[in-house]
Protein 1
Amino acid sequence: MRVVIVGGGMAGLVLARGLIHRGVAPVVLERMPSTAVVEGPIMLPFQAYDALEEIGLLEPIRAAGRDVPPHRDGLPVAIGVGRRLVLDHLREGVDIRWEHEVTGLLRDGDRITGVRARGPEGEREIPAHIVVGADGTHSRVRELAGIEAELTVSDTAFVSFRSPARCEEAFLIEFTSDGRQLTLLDWPGGSAGGWQIERPEGGRDAALAPGVEAFKRAYLRLLPRAAAAVEPVTELTYREVTEVRCDTWWRPGLTLVGEALHAMNPEAGIGSGLGMADAQALAIAVGRHRDDPDRALAEYERWRRPAVAPYLAVGSQGVRVVRGGELRDEERWPPPA
Ligand SMILES: Cc1cc2nc3c(=O)[nH]c(=O)nc-3n(C[C@H](O)[C@H](O)[C@H](O)COP(=O)(O)OP(=O)(O)OC[C@H]3O[C@@H](n4cnc5c(N)ncnc54)[C@H](O)[C@@H]3O)c2cc1C
C-alpha cells in the first residue's frame, strides 16, 4: 500500500510513524524546509498518549517535558514540552520530502490516485493508493478534493507571550467572568502564557496598542502568581483562530486527519491530541486493510467519527468556567477607553 501524507505537522508525522510501526512505509510531503524554526512549547494533552505510547515516544517526550497535574494511574493530564522536540522525535526514520508543496491531485474517474507536488527539482506526480491531507486548517488537499468545510473565525483571540523564566508551578489558569482563560505553562525552555480575549473589532492593532507593560500589569492583576515568569517579557503576539468542521471524512483514495478535518480553538487545549488520535486510528485501519484502501478509510471514519463528535459538539467553549454577570473592567483586554 502506497500512502502519501501531505503535511509534516504533528498529525501527519504520528500517522507516518504509526504506519511504519505496521510495516507500511509512507512518504510525507512538507512544503516547509527542514530548517524552519519551530519555537515555544505545546501542552500535549492525554488524548495524545496512546498514539505516542504505541510508537515508543511517550516516555522520552514526557522525560523532556514537565508533567501538568493532576495525575491518574501515574500519568499527568498533560505535558508541557517544546514543540520542536516533539517534531524532532516524530521525524526520526520518516521519509520526508521537504520543500514539496502539493498543488494538485491525480484522478482516475472518481478515485484519487496521487498528488502533483512542486519541489526544488520542479513539479512531479506521485502516485498513491491513499492520499492523506494532514495539511492543517487551510488544507489545500481538502479543497482540491472538493470536501466541503465550514470555516469560522473564532470569537476568542489570543494575546500571548514567551518568557525565558521558569514558573514554579507546572500550569496556572484563571478564568474571567465569561469563562475565558489567562494561562501560564511552564516547560524546560522557560514559560509561555496568554490571555484569551473576546476578538476586538480593531483586531491586532487594538489588542496590542496599549503596549507590553500595560498588558503585563493587567494580566498580573488577574494572575499574580505568574509575576516572576512574566517580568522578563518584552514582546506580545496576537492571534486569531479559524475553526474547521467537515461532514465528509473521505473520498475514494483520499482522507483527512488533524486540523484539516477538524480544528478547534486552542482554548480547548486538545488539538494536537485529537489529531494524533485520528492518525493512530487511520494507521490501525490501513494496517488491517492494506489491500483495500476504501475499506480502510470507511473503517477509520466508523471508529473515529463518534470519538471526535462529543468534542466538536461541545466546542472549545466546553472548557470555560463561566461565573456569569458582566465582565469587570479589569477583566477586559484591551482595557475600556
Ligand atoms: C496558537 C495555538 C496554540 C496551540 N496550543 C495547543 C496546545 O497547547 N495543545 C494542543 O494540543 N494543541 C494546541 N494547538 C493545536 C495544535 O498546534 C495542532 O492541533 C497540531 O499542531 C496538529 O496540527 P496538524 O498536524 O493537523 O496541522 P499543522 O500543524 O498545521 O501541520 C500542517 C502541515 O502541513 C504543511 N502543509 C500545508 N499545506 C501544504 C501543502 N499544500 N503541501 C505540503 N505541505 C503542506 C504545513 O507546512 C504544516 O507543516 C495550538 C494551536 C494554535 C494555533
Protein 2
Amino acid sequence: MARVLLVNPPFYRLLGSKYNANSLGIAYIASYLNKRDHDAWLYNADYVSDTGYIKVKKIFSNFDSYKNYFRDEDNAIWHEVKHNIVRFKPDWVGYTSYTANISAIKIISDKVKKADPTIKQVVGGVHATLDSNILKDLTSIDYSIQREGEEAFTALVENKNPKFIPGVVSRDKGGILFKTGIAPVIKNIDTLPMPERQKFWNIPEVEKKNVDVSYVNTIRGCPYKCTYCASPFHWDRKTTRLRSPQSVLEEMHLLKNNYYVPTQFDYSASANIDSKDQLKIEDNTIVYFVDDVFTVKKKRVKEILKMMIKDNLKMRWKCEARADHLDDEICELMAEAGCERVKIGFESGSNRILSEVKKLETREEMLIGANMLKKAGVPFSAYFMAGFPGETDEDLKKTIDFAKKIDADYYSLSVLAPYYGTELYEQLIKNGHELDQQPWEYFFHQSPKPMVNDKLSTKVLSEYLSLAELNSKNERKNGYV
Ligand code: B12
C-alpha cells in the first residue's frame, strides 16, 4: 500500500483570493488509488481557512504582488506548502497542472526534493498533457503523465516499469526524456469510482464543510475545436465520453445525502458579490457541472433533466452550454429541474470572428438559444471575449450590440489571452508573436489590455468593458457566475 498526496498548487491565494473547492482531476486519481487499497489524500494548497476574501473580479488587480511570489522563492507560502507535503510522509506526490501553475510546481518540487529526495514526484493534468517536454523544466519531478491519470499513476505507484506504461514520460540514464505516447482513453467512464470527497490533508475537521465538493464531471472531452480553447488537445475530441444519466443521478443523490446545503447562497470559487456582508461561508449550495458542454447530446440531457424531476431532487445546479444545443423542451425541463444558471460562451457577436475561431455557430443561432432560455425563465450568464487577432472596431461593436440584445443575467467580459496548447496559440507563435517568452505564471486571462490585437480603439474597447455595468442594473443576481 502506498501513501500518496495529490496536490492542487497555490494560485488564487497568490492573487489575494482563495479556491476552497475540491479539485476534481486529483479527486478522481485519489479515489481510483483508494479503491485499490492505497492511502491517497488531497492537499489543496490554495485553501485558506479564514473567511476573508476579495471579489473575484478584482483579484487580477493584484497581478504585481502575484508576480513577486515567483521572484521570491523563499517566501513563507512556498515553505509552508513544502512543509505540509513532507509532514504527510508520502511515498508519492502528484501535482495537478494548469499552465499558470507550472512555476509554482517548480518551486515546490525543488524544495520537496531537497527536504526528502526519497519522495517520488509526478506531474499530471492539463499542462503536463499539452507539453510532453515539461520535465525539462521540472527537474525535481520524476515522471509526467499525459491526459487521464487514473491508470497510469496507479501503475507507477504499483512499481510497474514506466517505460511500459502508456501516457508516462520518464528519463533515460542520460536524462533524455523517454515517452510512451498518450494513453488510450478510459472507454466507459461510468466504471470510475466517484471522486474523493473526504480525505483532505491539512484541513481541520470543523472546516471540512468549507470545502466545496459539489463539482460534478459528466463528460470527458468535447467534440468541438474552438481555437481559443485547450480542450481539443487536452482531451481527445474524437473520443468524447459521456456518463450515463443513471450514473449522473447517482452522484447527485450522493451529494444530496451527504453534502448538499439547501440555502440560497453560492460563494465558492466564483464569489462575485459586492460586500463582505453578503458572504455566506457554507458551501455546497449548488451543484456545478464542470463539463465543457453539458448539453452536448440533447437526448441525454433531456433524460438527465427528467430524472432530476422524477426523483424530486430539488437541488440547485449550474452548467456550461452552447446556445445552439437548446430547444424549448430542454429549457423548460431545465427550469423545472432547478437550474440556477446556464453559462454560455457566446464569445463574439460578429459572425466573421465566430467563423475564424471555429465556434461553429452564428450570432443568429445564438440569439435563438438565448431567447429560449429567457422564455423558460432560466437565468444565464454570457461570456464574451474581445481582442481576437484581426478583430476590428466594427466586429466589437457587433458584440456590444449582440450582448445588449440577449439581455443576459450576468456578463463576463474578457480580453483574449491565448492559452498554451490552443490552436490560436500555435498560430500566433507561427506568426511571430513571442508568447512563449512569457513566464508560465502569466498564462491566465483578465488583463484589460489586448495581448494580440492592435486594431481595436480604446474607445470601443472601453464601451465593451463597460457592459459590466449591466450587471449592477436591474438588481441582477450577481452571486452565480
Ligand atoms: C472546472 C474548471 C475550473 C474550475 C476548477 C478548477 C479546479 N482546480 O478544479 C475553476 C473555475 C476554479 C478554474 C480556474 C481556472 N481555469 Co479552468 N477549467 C475547468 C474545466 C472546465 C474543467 C476541469 C475539470 O474539473 N475537469 C474534469 C477532471 C476530471 O479532469 P482534469 O482536471 O483534467 O483531470 C484529469 C487529467 O487531466 C489528469 N490529471 C489531472 N491532475 C492530475 C494530477 C496527476 C498527478 C495525474 C497523474 C493526473 C492528473 O487525470 C484526471 C482524471 O483523468 C477545464 C476544461 C476541461 N474540460 O478540462 C478548464 C481549464 C482546465 N481551465 C483553464 C484555465 C486557463 C483556468 C484559469 C487559469 C482561468 C483564469 N482564471 O484565468 C484558472 C486556474 C485555476 C488554478 N487553480 O490554477 C484551461 C487550462 C488551459 C491551460 N493551458 O492551462 C482549461 C483547459 C479551459 C480551456 N478552455 O482551455 N477552472
Protein 3
Amino acid sequence: MKRFAVLITICLLVMGLHSGLVSADPGGYFILTGDLHCHSEFSHDSEVPVEQVVRETGLAGYDFLALTEHNTTRHMTRDWSTDEVLVIAGYEHTTPAAHVNIFGLRFIPRKSAIYSLEEMEEYLAPLREQGAVIQLDHPNDPLYYSRFGYAMEMDLLEVWNGTWREDDHKTLQDWHQMLVEGRYIPATGGTDAHANHLRRSPYNNVYVQEKSEQAILEALTLGRNFITRRPDGAQIWMECDGEIMGGTVPYREGQTMHIRITNVDPGMILRIYSDQGLHLEHVHTAGGSYNLQLDTSQVRFYRVELWSSEDVIYGFSNPMFIQH
Ligand SMILES: [Zn+2]
Ligand SMILES: [Zn+2]
C-alpha cells in the first residue's frame, strides 16, 4: 500500500513539473525574512555597535531582527528599527542549565544563576503569563547545550543555530522524533552572530499578513515558517483545505496537500518526510519548481527538507498536520 502511494506521488510529481498544478491558495500572505538570534555590543561577548548590526542585517536581506543580548534588556530602552529592518523584542536568558530566547517583552528580570529545569520553569512562568514567546536555543551545542534536553515547556525550538553543524543535524533528528511522537514545537533558525553580521545564516521565512512584531511572533508560534540558508533561493509553500504550513486540518476523503517549491537550484535534493519516515526523495536536475499534490490518507503530517548536496542542507519547513 505504501509503495503504491509513493508511486502515485512520483507520477503526480512528474506531472506537476510539467503542468504546473495549482490549487486555490488562501491569499494575503507574504514572507518576511528574519533573524531570531543575534548579538551586538550590548552583549559582553560582542563589540559590534548596534546601529551597524541593524544596518548589516538589512544589507544581508533580513526584514526583521531580534537582538537577543545575553542577560540584559538595556538594548530595549529604545527602538533600533529602520526603514529596512523591524527590530523586535528579544533577550537571551543565558544560564548554566540552558540558553533560552525570550521574545515580545521589554522588561525581563535578570537571573542567570539557573541550574535546573525546576528553577527555569519557575523563572519563566510569570514571563509566559505576560505573553512572552519562549524558545530553547541550540539544545545540542557542544558547550552550551540544554542540561535538561527538551523537557522544558517552550513555544519554539531553535533547530538551526549559525553554521550548520553536527549538533544542528542532531536537533533536526530529535525534532522529527518529537513530531512522530506527537509533540509539536515549531522550529526556527538563528544566526547567533556576534560579529561579521553581513555574512550570516540561516534565515527564517515567516508567512504573515502584516509587518508587525505581534504578527511575526504569532506566525512563528503557529509554525508558519521555513528556514533557509539564503534569502534569495528556493521557497516552500504548503497548503491544505485553506490552512497553510504549521496548521492542522481534519482528514476528509480525497484530500490532498499542496506543496509548492519555487526557485530550486539545479541538482537540489528534495526530501519529504511524514510520520512514517522518508516519503519521497527527488533530485531536481534542471532546477525550477515543484508542484506536488500529496495524498493525506495515510499520514499525520508532511514536512519538507531541501539539500544542496548530500551533506549541505539548504532549508526545511515546519510540518503541516492532518487530523485523522
Ligand atoms: Zn546561546
Ligand atoms: Zn546567542
